[in-house]
Amino acid sequence: MTIVSFAAGLIVYAPWLIVLLVVALVPAFLSEAHFNALNYTLNYTKTPERRELEYIRQTGASVETAKEVKIFGLHGFLIGRFRELSEQFYRANRSLAIRRAGWGSLLTAFGTLGYYVAYAYIAWRTVRGEFSIGDLTFLAGSFRRLRQLLEGMLVGFSQVAGQALYLDDLFSFFEIEPEITSPSAPRPFPAAIREGFVFENVGFRYPGAERWAVRHLTFTLQAGEVLALVGENGAGKTTLVKLLARLYDPDEGRILLDGHDLREYDLDVLRSNIGVIFQDFVRYHLTAAENIAVGRIEARNDRERIVEAARRSLADEVIDRLPNGYDQVIGKRFKSGMDLSGGEWQKVAIARAYMRDSQLLILDEPTAALDARSEFEVFQRFKELSAGKTAVLISHRFSSVRMADRILVLEQGQVEAVGTHEELLAQRGRYAELFELQAAGYR
Ligand SMILES: Nc1ncnc2c1ncn2[C@@H]1O[C@H](COP(=O)(O)OP(=O)(O)O)[C@@H](O)[C@H]1O
Ligand SMILES: [Mg+2]
């Protein structure tokens, strides 16, 4: 309203003053918009560098990396890399800021000049007697106010427009569609799996990878059995587990559960029926109880269930030794935290599997850091406790592997052999060879 009434006053007395006003303001506005866009582009194109910078900062200053940074003396290297990157980023930012300030001052000066030209013009006409002193006061005042108001509006507008560039990124992020989705009319999940999982000529390549991680994979994971997966690093064991949990879908072939494609079941229901502990499980810097409860986060206040899960995974001995027991924060990130050894962390992580009522339990090498006796006990219990459930266990220790009902030997993403420990030994294939190699090491 203020703008409209001042503008009306100006139009009556001296319409071209409005034109002058616009001419004086618009270039500054355009330059703001231009530099906003440049600034955005700079931030956008430097995203990898900014990420790297953040990564180096964390690497140089976190608990997880402290041991190696000290032992290998990496601080100089990390500081150098950080300095180099931030220097680059700083220089790019500075040159933009200088240009922005330069153009900004120039165009603002232009705007100010416009103001004085208008002022001089009004004064001149007053001197010539065409305007009264009252007109002069009114015009000069409204011209100045109008300029301030319009400038404020344009500045506000250009700031909003500048932020909107980033908002655009947010919206394009929201538009990303998940690749793994539930069907619109999912098939009811079997209350008790009857037949099991059947892999039919399954092939899968990681996005962007040339090599097939697994291919021509055909086998059955029978309901109620404990199946062990063995194979060298990179053979495709973890990939197989990820396909079972539908973290990825196969590129070739299909996986059936009780005769129907996994993709016909609801994704959340499927995942809630599968309990997987991966080799690279997460170490939450939370309390011991919460670290176990993440296996079934709704039950985080069910202390009885947590204690029972800990008992099953042998984590109870570890937790009993902590000063605050289940309420002890573990990990070293926080002041009150107490760190655990690798094997102790693993026992805590394995308890997560027992928090769930899943029909399929999978341990993907989360026992690598356990001592021989602990791994043996953990697997023995795992086998007992998964009675009636389907289970998959992955380990490089043959003493554990042989406990399984059946063993699947993977080699370069393909099934090389399947059978019981005795059958595989009798076949004298790779399994027997690897078994002998390990056994010989202990004699
Ligand atoms: N996220 C990934 N992206 C690309 N390739 C991967 C990824 N994870 C694993 N691979 C590749 O897939 C193959 C199988 O890996 P994986 O299933 O993890 O082996 P395993 O668990 O038997 O050691 C390997 O060649 C590995 O390099
Ligand atoms: Mg693996």
Write up what this structure looks like.
With 443 residues, the chain is α/β, with parallel strands linked by helices. The chain has 16 helices and ten strands. It has two domains: 2-174, no CATH class; 196-442, P-loop containing nucleotide triphosphate hydrolases (Rossmann fold, 3-Layer(aba) Sandwich), CATH 3.40.50. α10 crosses α12 (342-355). The strands form two sheets. A six-stranded mixed beta sheet has the order 6-7-8-3-9-10, sandwiched between helices. The structure holds adenosine-5'-diphosphate (ADP) and magnesium ion (MG). Magnesium ion binds at residues 237-238, 279, 364-365.
Strand order of the largest sheet: 6-7-8-3-9-10
Query: What is the name of the CATH class of the largest domain?
Result: Alpha Beta
CATH architecture of the largest domain: 3-Layer(aba) Sandwich
Please bin the fraction of helical residues.
Answer: 55-70%
Bound molecules: adenosine-5'-diphosphate, magnesium ion
Q: CATH homologous superfamily name of the largest domain? A: P-loop containing nucleotide triphosphate hydrolases
Query: Structural class, judged by helices and strands?
Result: alpha/beta
What is the CATH topology descriptor of the largest domain? Rossmann fold
Question: What is the terminal-to-terminal distance?
Answer: 95 Å
What count of structural domains?
2
What string, H for helix and E for strand, traces the elements in order? HHHHHHEEEHEEHEHHHHEHEHEEHH
Number of helices: 16
Beta-strand content bin: 5-15%
Rg (CA only): 35 Å
Mean pLDDT: 90
Major sheet, described briefly? 6 strands, mixed
In total, the number of strands is 10
List the uncertain runs.
none
What characteristic shape results from the CA principal axes?
elongated
